[in-house]
Amino acid sequence: MADQLATLLLEERRFPPPAAFAARAIGTPALYHAAARDRLAFWEEQARALDWITPWTSVLTWSPPHARWFDGGRLNVAANCLDRHLTGARRNKAAIIWEGEPGDRRVYTYWALAREVGRAANALKRLGVVKGDRVAIYLPMIPEAAIAMLACARLGAVHSVVFGGFSAESLRDRINDATATVLITADGGYRRGQVLPLKRIADEAVAQCPSIEHVVVVRRRPAGEGDESFAEMTEGRDHWWHRLLDRESPDCPAEPMEAEDLLFILYTSGTTGQPKGIVHTTGGYLTQATATTRYVFDLREEDIFWCTADVGWITGHSYVVYGPLANGATVLMYEGAPDWPERDRFWKIVARHGVTIFYTAPTAIRAFMKWGTKHPAAHDLSTLRLLGTVGEPINPEAWMWYHEHIGRGACPIVDTWWQTETGGIMITALPGVTTTKPGSATTPFPGISVELVDTTGKALAKGGGFLTLTEPWPGMLRTIYGDDARYQATYWSRFPGRYFAGDGAKVDDDGYWWLLGRVDDVLNVAGHRIGTMEVESALVDHPDVAEAAVVGKAHDLKGQAIAAFVTVKEGVKPSAELREDLREHVARKIGAIAKPDDILFSADLPKTRSGKIMRRLLKDIAEGRALGDTTTLADPNVVARLKEQYEDKE
Ligand code: 7RM
Questions:
Q1: Does residue 478 line the site of ligand 1, with CB under 6 A?
Q2: Are 110 and 82 in contact (CB under 8 A)?
Q3: How many angstroms separate the alpha carbon of residue 390 from the centre of ligand 1?
């Protein structure tokens, strides 16, 4: 962290907003003044941009650490994302422009999308889904993912979207934690030319999910060839999506929801082996998603907004589906990989559809850098006017490359810091207002109260420390599903009275925030959150493994890679085959994103005298650094031997 700090301190480049952009920007300095004067009035103003069935009677009820926003108010999220756009010219505007990886394309106007959502909602209703029921969604990036989410929102059912890259066991655990009654999946999804057999994986999961009554299957693959092998339908339980929707009416009344009724649960990794079901509610979440989309992305009627995140992550919830659609925007959605069939796929898409706003992750930008400038240079990117990043700290070189080769030196860049738990963007530049510095997320969004603290919880005006939030915000998580004690312990106990985000940060003399990464046992691999404990549990689940310790190590492209130190059971011989077998085992238990890059077999792990594994030292080894303080170790020889062994392996 110290090295990183020193490098960032040397960053002196400044990028003031281009004058032409500033002249017509939606965000203005007045927003900051208004929010500073009266934070709650500012958020009420943002909430008024939505359609409410009944207005709220109280803005905020705060009994720490529980917040209620817009109590007394009633609204429906799907009605805000669809119905209210159907009365004027927007009715015939594209809501979703979609490209499948194999090259198939679809466009849904607001009108067509609303009708499809109505049919899907009626179909779910016919399957017995009512307000408050949980529906699991395990789909590729196809329009049906957004349609399914909106159909749930229309009925007041709570969706839990599970990223399509997760394994059967991960899906099973999430379904069981939420006791979902319906699962929506597909026969497959395309990734680098291969079909990912989602239905087969879902069948494996559902076999151990007693709460599931129905499985709805979207047909993604062309009808005919080898249907059964991809989707073996269980009579009575499984239904084809298109057959269900075919017989339904497109008209489905939107359920009036209380502002604090649940909208969705989204599972995210924490510091234990058990993912947390982050709970988001209706009025506050939509208010923040809608306001941040409009101001941070300077969103206009004529824009084509492309956020490359999968709907399985929070970024896909807030900035592919809810934020843009609540604003009546045109969203671009793409199913597959950026390098399929060639490494210019993204730039082809930008040029073909005239994308104007592009929002992606630093890990993707670093891959583009590696692939070379010839790919973006071969396409007309002149429609782009604003770029964004999210998910991890962006190194200044990647920022500069993005600025020059994707933004042609002309587009402001918004580096947006936020979390699954915050629901929406928290720290970001406002394009047209903020002077940016490569590598800094700049300053808090209006109405957001962020404070740096030291290890004792003392507030710091600048320097290095931990990022905390001092006031509740509309999009904040309300609890962890089924485990409020864990909610309180995880977020509100480290620094009493404050929300602790788990991130280290530095604030410079201008009050700009520089995010330095997680300070807990959560890894950020290619922008995906993975708990070290989850990977460790998956490894020790293997019959040959006695003990495992997992750390993140710096990686050029992925930000962090996973390094595992494994001791095997008596009588087991470590081998290259076992190493591969362990990697596959982790993929089966969690998903391919969690496969360790390095696995080192070791006779012992470095432990303190009380038996705690010292991951800090393992990280030093994995990153090839001199070992830090080893005085608390029970046996310092263990770590010295490990270091030698690790270096030999390379
Ligand atoms: C939106 C999202 C959250 C964690 C967070 C940080 C890291 C996210 C940035 C960032 C530096 C950023 N949700 N993070 N954005 N770090 N600069 N702009 O990613 O729940 O999946 O992850 O991601 O560590 O705590 S998330």
A1: no
A2: yes
A3: 6
Choose which residue among 416, 417, 512 to substitute to test ligand 1 binding: the one with the highest number of ligand atoms within 8 A of its C-beta. 417
Local structure of residue 469 (DSSP, 8 states)? E
- At residue 244, the pLDDT reads 98
CB of 115 shorter than 6 A to ligand 1: no
**SS3 string of 546-608?**
EEEEEEEEEECCCEEEEEEEEEECCCCCCCHHHHHHHHHHHHHHCEHHHCCCEEEECCCCCEE
Report which ligand 1 atom has the smallest distance to the Cα of 417: 18
CB 187 within 8 A of CB 220: yes
Residues 305 and 356 sit within 8 Å (Cβ to Cβ): yes
Whether the CB of 428 sits within 6 Å of ligand 1: no
Protein residue whose Cα sits closest to atom 4 of ligand 1? 419
- Determine the distance separating the centroid of ligand 1 and the alpha carbon of 529, expressed in angstroms: 8
**Residues 369, 401: contact at Cβ < 8 Å?**
yes
Structural contact between residues 525 and 551, judged by C-beta atoms closer than 8 angstroms = no
- Confirm if 173 and 207 have CB atoms less than 8 A apart: no
At position 534, the amino acid (one-letter code) is E
Burial class (CB in 10 A: 0-12, 13-18, 19+), 270: buried
**Residue 278 burial by Cβ neighbours in a 10 Å radius (0-12, 13-18, 19+):** buried
Q: Which residue type sits at 518?
A: R
| CB distance 414 to ligand 1 below 6 Å | no
Please write the tens of the pLDDT for every residue from 347-397.
999 999 999 999 999 999 999 999 999 999 999 999 999 999 999 999 999
Position 472 scores a pLDDT of 98
Tell how far the Cα of 391 is from the centroid of ligand 1, in angstroms.
Answer: 4
- 268 Cβ inside 6 Å of ligand 1: yes
Q: Which residues contact 617 (CB under 8 A, 6 or more apart)?
A: 606, 627, 628, 630, 633, 639
Tokens representing 105 are 């394309």
Output the residue whose Cα is nearest ligand 1's atom 22: 419
418 C-alpha to center of ligand 1: Å?
Answer: 5
| Ligand 1 centroid – CA 419 distance (Å) | 5
* Residue ranges of E strands in 112-256: 134-138, 158-161, 182-186, 189-191, 194-196, 214-218, 238-240
- Distance, in Å, from the CA atom of 262 to the CA atom of 268, rounded to the nearest integer, reads 17
Looking at ligand 1, which atom is closest to the CA of residue 515? 11
pLDDT < 70 stretches in the chain: 1-9, 225-227, 650
> Angle, to 10 degrees, between the axis of helix 39-47 and the axis of helix 29-37?
120
pLDDT at 7: 64
Task: Kindly give, in sequence order, each residue whose CB lies less than 8 Å from that of residue 100, ignoring residues fewer than 6 positions away.
Answer: 106, 142, 190, 335, 336
CA-proximal residue: ligand 1, atom 10 (nearest)? 392
Q: Among candidates 227, 108, 141, 125, which has minimal Cα distance to 181?
A: 125
The residues with which 348 forms a beta bridge, in sequence order, are none
Q: Is 423 in the pocket of ligand 1 (CB under 6 A)?
A: no
Domains and CATH numbers, the chain: 19-447 (3.40.50.12780), 522-649 (3.30.300.30)
Pairing of strands 189-191, 194-196: antiparallel
Kindly state the helix (H) or strand (E) to which residue 315 belongs, with its residue range. Answer: helix 314-316
Instruction: Give the residue from 304, 299, 297 showing the smallest Cα distance to 383.
Output: 304
- Phi/psi region, residue 624 (left: phi>0; alpha: psi -120 to 50; beta: rest), is left
